[in-house]
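Methods — Computational structure assignment.
A single polypeptide chain was analysed. Its primary sequence is given first, followed by the predicted tertiary structure written as structure tokens.
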Amino acid sequence: MKQSPHSCDLCRSRFSEMGRPYLVTAVTHLRMPRFVDLASCRSVVGEMRNTDARGDCHTLTWVLMPDHLHWLFELQAVSLSAVVGRFKQASARNLNRLSGREGTRCWQPGFHDRAVRKEEDIRSFARYIVANPLRAGLVQRLGDYPHWDAVWL
């Protein structure tokens, strides 16, 4: 599997701290708009819920855009790379099964992460995440975009 030129650089300084919130962005392979139908979106959301149910993390806020995911969660039992890796693998398997395209790449290798420091306002991160559809011009009002959720804003 060929990685993007900087995907290894993203892992070198990655640190996982249990209990710390992380903002993770994962992008679809070749930025293909994989999340434009309800079934695909529900499949990915279901896998985020499975990740929470396993105790790997506790999801705080997320938005699923047509070609990427912004996900704010508190790390629980495993490393950051393990959470995202398990999620991407399982969601890709489910998406491929749903679309009838077994073995197709769904996600770009790697992911972008940002640890939320204690002094930072986590609500600002949550608001930034859920406002993505507005900034992208997909909707006029946040309530019109169906693929997001937040524990609190």
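Note: Residues 1-11 have pLDDT under 50 and may be disordered.
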